[in-house]
């Protein structure tokens, strides 16, 4: 059974509360004072009832001069009004102040999570569904925010009310107060048991919800593929499995937690009846009737805050589960900050010579992918990397970009180890065009400018012309100001690829990487890309991961990879002459064409 993760909660609450501590402390103090004043009401009313009862008895007994003491009752009413006005003022003030503090806190928390995302290694995202990460940023944060907004001051008010009520009970009658203090905690024993039993179910519910969000994000971003292969039924079945599991754990969590309120109410009802009988006997022993009324009312008042706490229990438990997930995310290991490395960096000082020296790498320690890998690329060369799927082509690029760190060996640019540079500095040497063209919901101009944010409009147009995409842009409604929709579905895959190439050209890198850049375009667009890339690659080192071997015939060096090793290297003609692995790979594609 999972225990409440107090350390994680403490850590996260410190992050949330400390920057706005006065925005939390002041409302809490106001709430405590307001709760104390509210708890005084039965006692103050009891004073008036006692005085009125004594007046009535004196009048009934025909005591000389006996009458209703309206002055005393008026003073009590004034005192009661003052207490309630102050209490309501503090209640509204505390709500106003803490609402601002909570909203600011969670704005900062979202920013912190967003900044955290940008410091995490690529391996983190490779091992998780994007939907589960999105769930942490949106759903989990909202669950905690709503719980704090609805529950924080209510819990403070309820706890203070319970403590103040017990103090007033003891003030009225020490024996009866002690008896009530012994009987009422029985309810907390039951509530603690139920909370511990249901807490792990709330965590399972949040995990199932995250899995559902991940499943939806993964499936329905490829909705056309689902329709194409008639996989609607299997997709619905997969969703139903997760949905049923969420239904089951959600039912268990909420049902178990919902037992708190009726159990508490039943126990307090029993205590209430017992205390009425006992205070009734106490009146015959000399207890003022107003004190009896106050004491009995305090019994019921104790239940009200306890009932509030139990009603808030499901929201609190969901928040605890979400806080655990957020804390785990915030504690994920980040890429090293590399503050010990020089920050001054001028890409223009680098020519683009690249060397791999005895590099070994494995995603899983027991399963090496790259083994004793070495080669050199001179500045300005076009290096093609070819091989079957899983040969390690993209892994080489991941290592070169420091998306992953090597196990041993070294990678150098112009004789300087990339591990002696800051990642940001090293990556500024590179431009990259991926197989999956990524564009975001903005204008065509802004999508190209993403390669260099300070580029002028003229430079954007110049990059588009080099990428052979300028004419296409001019034919679109709005031209460079046309908005690409969220799915990028209002332009073709080939056009997307041309725009990402323009983006890479605008960045003007020393080293250019093309990862299967032409695999998703037709022959005509491929020819346009090849012309554009010849211009773009001129004078800079280029790495091309090629799917179509016909596109890398002019490469200065072709690395043929298999199982993480270079099995052949040379030019296109020299490799064909060897009649080895490359020739078989080339001929197999040629025969398929």
TrEMBL record:
Residues 28-318 form the ABC transmembrane type-1 domain. GO terms for molecular function: ABC-type oligopeptide transporter activity; ATP binding; ATP hydrolysis activity. It comes from the Bacteria. Residues 354-588 form the ABC transporter domain. Keywords: ATP-binding, Membrane, Nucleotide-binding, Transmembrane, Transmembrane helix, Transport. CDD domains: ABC_6TM_Tm288_like, ABCC_Glucan_exporter_like. The chain crosses the membrane at residues 21-49, 69-86, 152-172, 178-195, 266-287. One of its GO terms (cellular component) is plasma membrane. It is a multi-pass membrane protein. It is found in: Cell membrane. Its main location: membrane. This is ABC transporter ATP-binding protein. It comes from Paratissierella segnis.
């Amino acid at each position: 059974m999972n225990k409440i993760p107090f350390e994680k909660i403490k850590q996260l609450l410190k992050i949330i509360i400390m920057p706005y501590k006065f925005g939390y402390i002041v409302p809490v103090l106001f709430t405590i004072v307001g709760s104390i004043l509210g708890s005084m009401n039965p006692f103050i009313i009891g004073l008036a009832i006692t005085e009125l009862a004594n007046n009535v008895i004196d009048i009934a007994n025909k005591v000389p001069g006996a009458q209703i003491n309206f002055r005393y009752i008026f003073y009590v009413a004034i005192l009661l009004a003052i207490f309630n006005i102050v209490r309501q003022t503090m209640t509204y003030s505390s709500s106003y102040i803490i609402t601002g503090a909570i909203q600011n806190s969670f704005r900062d928390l979202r920013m912190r999570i967003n900044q955290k995302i940008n410091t995490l290694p690529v391996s983190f995202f490779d091992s998780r569904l994007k939907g589960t990460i999105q769930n942490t940023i949106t759903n989990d944060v909202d669950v905690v925010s709503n719980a704090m907004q609805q529950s924080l001051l209510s819990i403070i008010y309820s706890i203070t009310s319970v403590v103040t009520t017990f103090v007033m009970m003891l003030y009225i009658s020490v024996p009866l107060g002690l008896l009530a203090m012994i009987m009422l905690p029985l309810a907390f024993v039951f509530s603690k048991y139920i909370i511990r039993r249901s807490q792990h179910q709330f965590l399972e519910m949040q995990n199932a919800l995250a899995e559902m969000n991940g499943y939806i994000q993964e499936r329905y971003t490829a909705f056309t593929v689902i329709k194409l292969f008639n996989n609607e039924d299997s997709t619905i079945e997969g969703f139903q499995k997760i949905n049923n599991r969420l239904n089951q754990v959600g039912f268990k969590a909420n049902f178990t937690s919902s037992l708190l309120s009726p159990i508490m109410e039943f126990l307090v009802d029993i205590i209430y009846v017992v205390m009425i009988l006992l205070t009734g006997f106490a009146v015959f022993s000399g207890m003022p009737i107003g004190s009896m009324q106050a004491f009995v009312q305090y019994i019921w008042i104790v239940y009200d805050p306890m009932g509030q706490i139990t009603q808030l229990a499901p929201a609190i438990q969901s928040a605890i589960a979400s806080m655990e997930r957020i804390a785990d995310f915030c504690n994920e290991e980040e890429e090293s900050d590399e503050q010990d490395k020089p920050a001054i960096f001028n890409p223009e000082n680098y020519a683009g010579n690249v060397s791999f020296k005895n590099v070994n790498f494995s995603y899983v320690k027991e399963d090496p992918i790259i083994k004793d890998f070495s080669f050199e690329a001179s500045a300005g060369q076009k290096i093609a990397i070819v091989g079957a799927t899983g040969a390690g082509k993209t892994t080489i690029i991941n290592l070169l970009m420091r998306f992953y760190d090597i196990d041993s060996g070294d990678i150098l640019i112009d004789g300087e180890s990339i591990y002696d540079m800051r990642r940001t500095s090293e990556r500024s040497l590179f431009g990259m065009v991926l197989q999956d063209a990524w564009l975001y919901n903005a204008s065509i101009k802004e999508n190209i400018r993403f390669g260099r944010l300070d580029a002028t409009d003229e430079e954007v147009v110049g990059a588009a012309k080099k990428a052979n995409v300028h004419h296409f842009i001019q034919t679109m409604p709005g031209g460079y100001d046309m908005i690409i929709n969220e799915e990028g579905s209002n332009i073709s895959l080939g056009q997307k690829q041309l725009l990402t190439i323009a983006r890479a050209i605008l960045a003007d890198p020393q080293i250019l990487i093309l990862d299967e850049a032409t695999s998703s375009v037709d022959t005509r667009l491929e020819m346009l890309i090849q012309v554009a890339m010849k211009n773009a690659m001129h004078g800079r080192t280029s790495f091309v991961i090629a799917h179509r071997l016909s596109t890398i015939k002019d490469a200065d060096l072709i690395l043929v990879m298999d199982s993480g090793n270079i099995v052949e290297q040379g030019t296109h003609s020299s490799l064909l002459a060897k009649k080895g692995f490359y020739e078989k790979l080339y001929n197999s594609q040629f025969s398929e064409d």
